[in-house]
Amino acid sequence: MTTPIMQARAVTGHEPTSVGTASPGPAAGVDAVLYLDGQLRVVRSSHPGPAVVRLIGELDAVNTSVVIETLRRAGRDAGLLLIDVEKLGFADVGGTRLLTGLCRDGRARLVNTPDHMRRLLDLLGLPGT
Question: Which of 5, 20, 58, 95 could form a cystine bridge with 91, CB 3.0-4.6 A?
Answer without folding.
Answer: 95
